[in-house]
Amino acid sequence: MIEIVDLYKYYGERRAVGPLSFSIEAGEIVGLLGLNGAGKTTTLRILACDLLPSSGSVRVNGLDVVESPHEVRSLIGYLPDTPPLYGEMTVRAYLHFAARLRGLSKASADKRVPEVLEATGLAEVQDQLIASLSHGYKQRVGIAQAIVHGPKLLVLDEPISGLDPVQIVEMRELLRGLKGEHTILLSSHILGEISETCDRILVIREGQIAASGTEAELSSKLLKNQRVEVTVRGDEEKAKEAASAVSGVVSVEVIDATEEGAGVVTLQIESGGDAREAVCHALVTAGIGLLEVRRGERELETVFLELAGPETKGDGTEAAPRKRRAGKKGAKKARASAGEGDAGAKDAAAEKEDGSGT
């Protein structure tokens, strides 16, 4: 669905993205994880035909974003970091407006909008002014306008940013529900948001992919040992002895009791395997009550922060190489498409007004 090869984007002499290469298969939910300024927004804007690349190849469903921007836009639903909303319109009227901009006939829009309202949980607020909605509902409206024309690919820039805990859970459920009909690429700077929602993670650092894989694969690659915390009831020293005998367990430490009669045993387990089931079996066999088993997330988050953090060497810039600019035909098409009154142009205007660049 997406194939990016040796993508570069320069702003003057400053390299914002590159060299960047990755691919995404149809039906995946993939998270682009990186700190602010890592190049996430620039990459998504190029995918959405909102920004021309300096060089490299970017293809969506086999179509080049420079040579065929109008066709690519028809395949993409784009949500910039600031949703392109009109506060004075009702939710239903706005989605009709977005549908018509995307080329749907009035009859098709009349049929499609109720489906989208239902799919995004907006039916109950469809007659309210957008300005009166909470941030969570505004994000839903932003996603609704991105899917109203039935795109194959959703490109979502920080869709969970600024939501409260309840809204985050609801947004995750919404995104998972959309997976069956769409390929989804979303960005975030928070590991928890990505790992709970996505099938695969791409870690971006200074415009380049620093690591990629599932959360389990990245844990195995980045951590020598994985930490597992087991809350037990019973003799903690006996629990330590039983867990230590399990193959793959490197070390065991007993932490202070969390409640009366219960304590936490922390295990370091070799990466590349999963000894949790064997540990649980050993503890139960030893007569230890098992209350909870969970992975130590903080350790992985620390590694991700180190991996995704800014480099310290150099001045953060590099000279621009000779770039493969868009050909005259492609550039002409890109300029023509940028002038059309479709939702992609609305997205571009909204993001430029917000001042986001990377």
From TrEMBL:
Keywords tagged on the record: ATP-binding, Nucleotide-binding, Transport
Keyword Repeat: no
InterPro entries: AAA+_ATPase, ABC_transporter-like_ATP-bd, P-loop_NTPase
Molecular-function annotations in GO: ATP binding; ATP hydrolysis activity
Basic residues composition bias: residue spans: 322-335
One Pfam family named in its UniProt record: ABC_tran
SMART domains per the UniProt record, alphabetical: AAA
ABC transporter domain residues: 2-231
Annotated segments matching region Disordered: 309-358
Sequence ranges of Basic and acidic residues compositional bias: 343-358
Family: Belongs to the ABC transporter superfamily.
Protein name per the record: ATP-binding cassette domain-containing protein
Organism this protein belongs to: Polyangium spumosum
